[in-house]
């Protein structure tokens, strides 16, 4: 402290404290109950987006999840953020499935089984079909990882003689994206979708 001439004292200017180790730590993981709520919201969002696309209201997603709207907004401040998280989660699950099939004893069957799964997911779940058909930057990283996993299945199937050798992963994904878009028009029936993909997949086999 410094002395004034009148005998009073002034407090020395406060010194800014160094940030503690705790202040510098990364954000803590969600508590178990918060994690469960987030997972419930994500599952409900995937179901709602799958049926109705991105037009479904957040209040409807909250109702399906059995939580308040505030809980949804706390984890996902916008519907776009929730849609992105739902898509990324679904794509990551598909990546895991593709990687598991990469060591299957029958490469041709593994490849076409995975394509069948993509068809089932993409034609029933509109959110996946919308994501596969876009080049939005938020999907580039998971989409790249999915392409790498599918490329491994494609290469193995080509080496086993089950898939024609004159295509690469870019050709395949263009065909898949285009077929998703064509097969998900409003007036297309389930049988028409099945025939469309059967024709496309038959074209991938060596002739």
List keywords for this structure.
65% helix, 2% strand, 207 residues, 9 helices, two-stranded antiparallel ribbon, single chain, mainly alpha
Q: How would you describe this structure to a colleague?
A:
It is a single chain. It is built from nine helices and two strands. Residues 1-27 have low confidence and may be disordered. The longest helix is centred in the middle third of the chain and has 23 residues, at 79-101. Helices cover 65% and strands 2% of the residues. A two-stranded antiparallel sheet has the order 1-2. It is mainly α and 207 residues long. It is elongated and about 55 Å long.
Quick synopsis:
With 207 residues, this protein is mainly alpha-helical. Helices cover 65% and strands 2% of the residues.
Biggest sheet character: 2 strands, antiparallel
Briefly note the structural class of the backbone: mainly alpha
Oligomer: single chain
Shape: elongated
Instruction: List the helices and strands in order.
Output: EEHHHHHHHHH
Provide the low-confidence segments as ranges: 1-27
The proportion of strand residues reads: under 5%
The number of helices is: 9
Radius of gyration, whole Å = 26 Å
Strand order of the largest sheet: 1-2
Number of strands: 2
Let me know the average pLDDT. 80
State the helicity in percent bands.
55-70%
Tell me the distance between the termini: 92 Å
């Amino acid at each position: 402290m410094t002395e004034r001439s009148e005998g009073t004292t002034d407090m020395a200017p406060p010194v800014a404290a160094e940030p503690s180790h705790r202040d510098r730590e990364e954000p803590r993981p969600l508590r178990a109950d918060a994690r469960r709520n987030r997972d419930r919201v994500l599952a409900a969002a995937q179901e709602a987006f799958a049926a109705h696309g991105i037009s479904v209201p957040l209040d409807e997603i909250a109702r399906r999840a059995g939580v308040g709207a505030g809980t949804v907004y706390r984890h996902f401040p916008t519907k776009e953020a929730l849609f992105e998280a739902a898509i990324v989660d679904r794509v990551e699950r598909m990546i895991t499935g593709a990687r598991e099939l990469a060591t299957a004893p029958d490469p041709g069957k593994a490849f076409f089984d995975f394509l069948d799964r993509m068809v089932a997911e993409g034609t029933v779940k509109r959110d996946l079909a919308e994501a596969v058909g876009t080049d939005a930057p938020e999907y580039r990283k998971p989409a790249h990882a999915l392409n790498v996993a599918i490329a491994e299945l494609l290469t193995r199937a080509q080496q086993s003689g089950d898939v024609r050798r004159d295509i690469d992963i870019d050709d395949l994904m263009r065909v898949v994206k285009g077929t998703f878009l064509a097969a998900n028009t409003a007036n297309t029936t389930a049988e028409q979708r099945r025939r469309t993909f059967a024709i496309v997949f038959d074209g991938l086999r060596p002739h």
